[in-house]
Amino acid sequence: MGWRGRAGGPAASAGELLRGAPPGRRGGGGLLPGLPGAARRRRGAPLRELGLLLLGLLVGALLLAAQARLHTPRGGGAAAPPGDAGAPARQRGGLPPSRGPPGRVEARALPASSLRGGRFDRGRVYRVRAADVAGLAPMWEVMAEVGPRILHVDNLQPYVDSIPELRKQQGDCLGPPDESYYNRFTRYIPHMGTRGDKSVIQGLEPGMQVRDGHIRMYEVETPVPRYDNLERLNLPEEVKTAFSRGGSGVMVHAGDVAGGALSYDWWEKGGRNEARAKKNAVVNSGDFYYPPGGFKEWHTNKCQQKSSKVYVEGTDDPGFMSSTDCRGFKGTGGWRGYLVYAAEDERSWMSLLDGAGRIRSVPDRSGYLNLFFLGHTDGEITWHTIYSETHRWSMGFRIDEEWLNEELLAQLLESDALVEEFSLDLGGPGAGGGPGGGASARSAERRAQGGG
To answer: Engineered SS bond to 303: which of 89, 184, 326, 382, CB 3.0-4.6 Å?
Structure first.
């Protein structure tokens, strides 16, 4: 391997460069190309010349090694093929080539007024545009303003690769789950981030906390969504002060403000009757950022999970026993809504198992709320996972079914909005929106056979 001259002439060897000979003149006096002849002429040479010869060989070898390093891609990998636009990102972050959502399902857009029975069906997944819902628009305005400014985390993949169990779970997001394996995390999330090398992750903003395959955003300070009803509602003064950040100096989470404003407004409309005031209509349940390669492992949200245990493959900790028993932990079934900001549409998605055990994926659209129902019992659990190939930020809410069908639907009807509906065959005989709905076809079959 030679070095090319300035004018593009013949390559010069390391020996010629050391000797000072012009490229192409390979006389017998050179240290490297003329080695056999030089050795014959120097049989009686003193030790000094022999030492110079060996020194020349060593320097030449070092120069050749340096030249080889200059032509090797950083990181030791193979050079990217010409024109492979995706290769730089994969080399930098180690991400696999894009395969897209597995079992992708297309939406059917329909007027909100045509929802079957005037209700959201527990057996289906929905997507509604936040700007079409008066109660969601202020929250979306915050996400749309903040997202492009702070979501720029890079190099998550080397951290994921530093934890074998985490890398396995990332790969599993692209196929159906091993339910026996993922039932280990019914009560405790894997919480493996304490084991990995987070120093390689770039672009973390103050308050961002790496949690397994994604980033917790709850401590990130953002503007507070502005709800006009906060001033006119009959709220305690300390609540108004906190929600308006009236110089209290205490950080207030944007998702909590949105959930509180929607709940208080609903209570006021119902005359603050005791039954309604005992339950929150909308409760913030998560605030997570998924950089490229980010994910949430397969799970069911059947039980309230804790993060006080660290999972290691082969552990005999009873907390990670494969089970669907909440064992005293609070059940967390019901409707979920995830308001999504995505730097690129349809480059992130939620995958679920349908009634026949097939994987179905709903791609994300930025500025939309994804709605789906989580069953409460073993026969009605909904396996789901998140995977992202872009910068995805989701604000999660637990949503009361009465509020969903009474208040959210009314706001959609008022704006004459469309609802995107995904039919995933999640519903069994009881599906249709009321209590007892949402049972999967597999669970109905088990019941017919006398099983669980």
So the answer is: 326
